[in-house]
Amino acid sequence: MKKLAKTITALSGSAILLGACGNAEQAEEESFELNWSTTPSYSTQNPTESQANYIADKVSEFEEDYPQVELNTDLQSTDIDESMTRLLEQANTDRAPDVAAIDGYFFPRFMDYLQPLDDLFDEYEIDIDDYLPFVQDVLTGDDGQIYGLYMNTDTRVLFYDTDVVEEPPTTWDEAIATSLEIQEEGYNGLIFPGGRGEGTAVTTLWPLFWAQEGELVDEDGNPTFGEGDNYDKMLNVLQAVNEAVESGATPQRVSSYGGENDLNEEIAGGDTAMFLGGNWQVSFLRETLGDDFDSWAVAPLPQLEEGQFATSAGGWAWGIFAEEEEKQEAAFDLINRLFVGEEGMTEWTNVHGGLPSRTSIYEAEDLEAGEFSDTFREYLEDANVRPASQHYNEISNQMQIAVSEVISGGKSPEEALDDAWAVVNEGE
Amino acid sequence: MNTSNKRSALSLTLTKGIGNSPIPWLIPLSLILLFVFLFPVFEIIRYSFTDASFLETDYSYTISSFVRLFTLPGFYQMLIVTLIFVTASVFFQMFFGFLIALLIDKGQKLNLKGTVMVRTAVLTAWAIPGVVIGIIWRIMYTETPSGILNYLISFVGVDIVPFLSDPYMALFAVTLANIWRGTAFSMILLYAGIQTLPKDVMEAAKIDGASAIQRLLKVMLPMLAPIILINLIIISIDTFNTFDMVMALTGGGPGQSTEVIALSIYNSIFREFNLGHGAATAVVLLTINVGMTIVYLRVLGKRGAA
Amino acid sequence: MLNKKQLLFTKIFIYLCYGTVLVFFLFPMLWVISLSLKTQQELFATPPAIIPTSFAYENYLHVLENSNVLLYLRNSFIIVLFTVIFALITAIPAAYAISRFRFKGKSALLVTILMTQMISAVVISIPLYRLFAEWGLINNYVVLIIVYVAVVLPFSTWFLKGYFDTIPYELDEAAIVDGCTRFQILTRILIPTCLPGIVSVTILIAVQSWSQFVIPFILLDNESFYPVSVGVMNLQSTQQTISTHLLAAGSVISVLPVIILFVILQRFIVGALTSGAVKG
Q: In terms of DSSP H, where are the helices of A66-212?
């Protein structure tokens, strides 16, 4: 009996489906809206034509396969902090879109509002263990369920021109020495982001701090970077940066560079031989330096002590807020075909560059891997991510202020750190 | 027969019809102002007495935001930065605005060619949105040899000037860009003032043998005093409230050396999610705004009495 | 003879000053135009070339095709247009009432209006953001324009009130004798007579709304609704793909329409502003 009932239901279901195909009116009745909140670069507004076309093609494929879905695109502002703040506010006030692009380091803070995706992962045959280790941590909630789809990732490295710098410096002191040497040959010294911006935190500050096993926050997310051992470790970081500037190895102007891309202009000038930056800058370097880029190589970020290693990983994930199953399914399919599925991630990497967050994609046949991508992948195995504390943004902002004050000569490392700690800590 | 008598007589003839009370005429204005100003001001004061985070709906009432604001490093520096930015911007905007207004006035009297062009050139700066001005000046201040200002300065034998990476230079750089932006407004206002000066007084002073400088200081400036004061207050308030240009130019850095009060409010709330703290800073700005209004009213009152 | 010599010196002196003023005010714009016509290679040449040799106008095509500058411009025009219309509809009757009626609390009302003029837009935008977010009105042009109107209302009302005050009351009287209602007095007599003042205030509202930053920046969070004053920010932060020459081209496109408008209308604008400044 039960079986019969099931068959009947299934039959009537398919009848409805058949009917829907032949009957536009009926399809409209069952149609629903899907609000897709994305950044301009992950939308058809992407300024690079090939990327925009890729997204447009995939989206129209999706729309053909899901005629009942009316896809609404909400474009986020390109200011990440701001757009994430707003998204959190929306989630908080029950106005969240159905599916949204979320910066990886904000992701855990959205988990309370997101839907678990384990079933859909199974259905689409994505294995969570295929993701890089740090990505698994980001996506998995305290309850062990999976809450998001990670797309590409990125990491920070030392870029250097082998024609000028034969051996990449592994320690900060070596970096200073090398920088002073190459300046005598007429090159610019070591540059890195040192101004107010998230690039300064993830490229310059945190790797030096993490490599000493410093902790920005404790398990409950409360700030700890300014007390106990962590204080000394953070002070070491600021002192190292200070030394680089005082010794003349690094120009003071880095205090106006808040992001990795702020270095581009100077690099394009052609006199730079060594800088700390993000993997995505490879495509810019190739485009601007042309054949001169052939002599460039990448190495791990120089650290305070020999043998230390740390780098930051970033990237974006997609979270699904919608509670309706049909919306979840459609949203998952959309993101999967665009950025996450085997085909999607491979093709997206080919047009966009960046680094796949799924290890299997590195082996994918169709992947046209960017330069150095195997090296980047190796670093990513041990990469750190920023803590998902609600205090993180304040910590980051205050430490950006601190380091740029040190570089510009406004404060000593001690003063700058004490002030940053005072502001963050009294904010409790 | 004075006007008020006339009016009361007339108002008798106008007692019928709905148009005869001022209230309906004022309703749209009042509603909009109540909704857009009164409610938010009340809210921001309320938030300033809470520990609210921008991201959470729960909060409790406390005065810790103010305590924190007044005791933490950075607050007084921010006030000083704002004060320097405002004072220098306002002074030089008016100074250059007045000079250019005088030049244009003189040029017009002499029928010089190019007067209109100068006037237009200055005016266009006024029509450019602040963010674009910030972007333009950031490009000009580039601290490498390909930066145009640094290139030009190198002719006088000066090495690279750290326009944006030295705390003091950055404040100077931001202020200079703001002077560029705001001079047009002062120029137009003062130019208008100069046009209204009675010609006979100026002529009389000339015949009396007063030198150009004397005429300027003893005759022109006193007569222009009211409009100068109004100009002063309008642009002071505008400068206190602005941050778009600074945001695009330096983002407040290096450190907090160019973080003016309005930018600080924005950063507290949208970067650090500290609604209570940001609201407390906003209340400080509001107090400055109200203080300026009182000064303005005093000035206006005196002007009316004179 | 001496007088002529003096005059010549004065002229030369003024021209020198004009030159300095022109350089100071035009140079930044000209430099950006120059950058916008350079190729990436030329951009970083040292010493920098003042006049671009490659005349890379394709930068403009690139920006037009790959960014939303035109959309931002369109949004700005829509916002400014409606702000002007609604601000005038609200301010004219209010200014009329304040100018022509005698009522209790009039000076208090004037002071209150003035007070609102002084309040920073940052202060009001944040509570409004929270409120609009709760009501689902973020990215809604109607409420956005109401806020824009509120910001320009105080000075518009004061300004128009000042202008109406200069029109002799005898004119109203004559109209009343002819049997006009108040509304007719306003529309048939005061508005036509005060047209220059209304034009001045329109220009002031338009310029202020055009460069308004804080309000759209906080009350809009969808990029496709941004006006130019906020949208160009996106050009700056997507530098990953857009570098200085393109940023320069984007900046030029975003200010060009208004600069052209200013140059064409400049005589008119100055006239309107000077008459306004004196009356207000």
A: 80-92, 118-123, 133-139, 172-184, 198-199, 206-211
